[in-house]
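A reminder from the course coordinator: this example appears on the midterm review sheet, so study it carefully.

Given structure:
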């Protein structure tokens, strides 16, 4: 039966202008649809920010406190975060393939903590085919700016970003802070910019004094690592300061899974990142969940 016979009228919406959206992730306006679609799984399109949960520590540190059993510790946190960041081995073995959240796979390896100096540059632990097979939304590469592994790690970053661009998978460049690297505004200005210019679609770095300049000078979103475990109010304060200064989220590990209430911390961080809660309001969220036991 034809449309005319069925009396169905065509409507070309001639009065409606064509859809033209400004893509909400910094520096990703030029990317193609697949890359933007993955970016929109990483970054909440409303807030433009993300809560990534990092549990990749075992790749150099072995069974870190709080991650002795990833299959026990991490799955209960999935509802509270946007992205799960781990190695291919941990994600495959410990997370349910039915989960709907985005995954960021750490695709490089480095020397373990048994060596005095880990910053030699490492190699590829998960190639692009494996990342695609695992349905990765993002690939993370550790880089060592100002250390012996600088050249090697920048090569791995650039190669990963090229492969990611080919298949529409964003690359997260991770700024490592090893023995020789300072934690100054000057260092982070240099390191974050170098990673972005060598192809990282997202940069993971650390909060520092003058962070607003670091964020402004980086053409792609910066997410901050948490670093060693702090008392909960201090960790929330740091996350809040970072967001206020231009970070687009966190990629936090120990300050969540080593907390006495990991779910409360993950929820509280989410409120800061997505809903502009103050550290005090976020602490109340953490305490409420902790007190419920
Ligand atoms: C180290 C990493 C780790 O994933 C990250 O730093 C761990 O998070 P946290 O410091 O918050 O425990 O990228 O290079």
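Designed residues:
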């Amino acid at each position: 039966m034809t449309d005319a016979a069925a009396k169905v009228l065509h409507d070309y919406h001639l009065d409606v202008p064509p859809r033209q959206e400004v893509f909400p992730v910094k520096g990703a306006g030029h990317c193609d649809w697949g890359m933007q679609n993955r970016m929109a799984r990483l970054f909440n399109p409303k807030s433009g920010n993300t809560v990534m949960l990092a549990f990749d520590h075992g790749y150099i540190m072995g069974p870190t406190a709080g991650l002795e059993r990833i299959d026990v510790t991490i799955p209960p946190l999935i509802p509270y975060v946007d992205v799960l960041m781990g190695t291919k081995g941990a994600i495959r073995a410990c997370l349910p393939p039915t989960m709907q959240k985005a995954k960021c796979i750490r695709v490089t390896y480095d020397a373990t903590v048994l060596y005095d100096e880990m910053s030699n540059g490492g190699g590829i632990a998960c190639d692009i085919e494996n990342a695609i097979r695992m349905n990765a939304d993002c690939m993370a590469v550790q880089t060592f700016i100002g250390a012996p592994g600088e050249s090697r790690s920048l090569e791995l970053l650039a190669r990963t970003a090229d492969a990611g661009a080919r298949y529409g998978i964003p690359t997260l460049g991770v700024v490592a802070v090893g023995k020789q690297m300072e934690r100054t505004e000057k260092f982070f200005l240099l390191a974050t910019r170098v990673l972005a210019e060598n192809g990282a679609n997202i940069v993971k770095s650390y909060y520092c004094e003058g962070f607003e300049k670091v964020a402004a000078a980086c053409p792609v979103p910066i997410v901050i690592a948490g670093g060693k475990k702090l008392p909960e109010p201090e960790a929330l304060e740091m996350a809040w300061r970072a967001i206020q200064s231009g970070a687009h989220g966190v990629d936090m590990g120990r300050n969540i899974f080593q907390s006495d209430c990991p779910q409360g911390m993950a929820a509280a961080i989410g409120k800061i990142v997505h809903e502009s809660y103050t550290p005090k309001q976020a602490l109340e969220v953490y305490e409420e969940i902790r007190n419920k036991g």
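The first strand starts at residue 50 and ends at 54. The chain is about 40% helix and 15% strand.
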